[in-house]
Amino acid sequence: MATTPATGTSDQQSVYKYKLPFVIGASAAGTTIEWYDFYLYGVLASFFATQFFPPGNEVAALLSSLAAFGAGFAVRPFGAAFFGRIGDIVGRKFTFLVTITLMGLSTAAVGLLPTYSQIGILAPILLVFLRLLQGLALGGEYGGAAIYVAEHSPDHKRGFYTSWIQTTATVGLLMALTVILIFRVSMGDQQFREFGWRIPFLFSAVLVAMALYVRLRLRETPLFTRLKDAGQSSTSPWRESFGNAPNRRLILLALFGMTAGQAVVWYQGQFQALFFLQNTLNIPFQDSYLITGVAIALATPFFLFFGRLSDTIGRKPIILGGCLLAAITYIPIYILMTNFAGPGTPGTNAAGAAITLHTTPNHLALIALIFIQVLYVTMVYGPIAAFLVEYFPARIRYTSLSIPYHIGNGWFGGFLPLIFTALAVAFANPLAGLAYPIIVALMTAFIGWRFVRETKDVRIWDEVGGEQEQKVPAGAINADSIAGA
What we know:
The protein is mainly alpha-helical. The chain has a single domain, classed as Growth Hormone, Chain: A (Up-down Bundle), CATH 1.20.1250.20. Helices cover about 75% and strands about 0% of the residues. The protein contains 23 helices and two strands. α2 (about 20-45) packs parallel to α6, α5 runs parallel beside α8 (about 120-150) and α5 (about 75-90) runs antiparallel to α20. The longest helix is centred in the middle third of the chain and has 36 residues, at about 245-280. It is globular. It starts with 9 loop residues before the first helix and ends with a helix.
C-alpha cells in the first residue's frame, strides 16, 4: 500500500536501515571495479596494438587499437538509454546489479581471447565485441551509482557525498595502472606478452563477485521508493525525456554546456597524458605509469574538496572554471612536458621501428605537470554528478541524466585519444591534437555560463514531499547522524 510523505514510514525505515557511509562505500566499490575493468584496455592500448592487430604498419595498428578502445565509448549512450529506462521504471538498485554483472563477464572474457597470431582477423573482431559489451554496461552503471548516492543524501550536502562516486573513475584507472605495472615488472616482458596480460582481466571476476555480494545487501533508494509508492514514477521515460521539448532542451544544454567539456578535460588530463608520455615522448612504460599514477594519487582528494566547495559556491563556477583553465593552459603544459622528457637516444619500439627514446625524464617536473591536469579533472568531475541529479526531475532522472553524461564522456571524451593521435599524424605536429580538447572545453565554458542554470539550491526531496528528518521512528538512526551533520 502506498504511503504518503506526511504519515508513511516504510520509506523512512528503508533509508535508516543503514548509514550513508555504507551506501557510498557499496556504490563506490562496485563503480570503481567497473572503471577498473573498462580502463584495463586503455592502459594497455599501445601494448594491444602489437597483440590483436596485423603487424607491419605501426601507426595503423596503434590507430586501430585506439579505435577499439573508442568502440566501448561509442555505445555508452545506447547503454545509458537502455538501462536508464529500466532504472526509471524498475529501480536504481536492480539496474546497477545487472550492469556490474555484464561488465565483469565481458572483462573476464577479454582475458581468455586468443591473439592475432593465433586466430588472425577474428581476434580484433572479438575484442571489439567485448569492448561494446563493456561500454553498454558502463552506460547503465554510472547513472545508477550517482543517483543511488544522491537520492540517499541530504539536499545541502549532495555535492560532497556524490563526489565520492566521482573519485571512482580515477581510482579505477589508478588500480589498472598499478596492477598492470606490478605484473609487467615482476614477470618480465616475455612472460607478460605470452600470458601475463590476461591475469588483470581474469582477476576482475573475483572483484565483481565481491562487489555483487555487497550490493545485494542494499535496498532501493528512499526517494524512488516514495515516488513509486505514490504512483508518480514514469512508465515511459524515453518519451518523457525526448518527446517533451523542455526536457529535450535540458538534455542538450547538459551535454554541450557541461558534460562535453568535462569529458575532454577528464580524458586529456589522465588518459591522453599517459599516451603522450608513452607514444609521443617514448618514455618507458615503468616511468610513464609511475609519473601518471603518482600525479593521480596526489590529486584524487581534490574530487572531495571541489564536491564540498560546490555545495557552497555552486556547481557552475567550478566545472566551467576547470574547462576554461584547461583550455588556456594545455599548450604551455605540453610544451613543458616535451622539454622535461629528457635527452633523446636512438632506439626501437615494440614493433622494431626506429624511434627516439627518452630514458631519463624529469620525474618530478612531469608529475607536477600531470598533477595540474588532473586537478582540472577534479574541478570538472567532482561536482558533475550532483549537478546532473539536480538538473532533471526524479521520474525521468536515470534516463535523462545518463544520456548527456555518456554522449559527452563516451563520444566527446572517449574518442579523444584517437582524434588527438589522428590530428598529430595529419599535421606532423605532436601538439596539433590539443586543438580538439581546447575547442570543446571553450565551447562548454561559453554555453554553460550563458544558458545553463545553477542547481546547488535545488531540493530534490521536495519532489516527493520533502525530507522527513523529524519523523524518524523510535530507535532508528537520525538523518543528521547518517549525513554526518
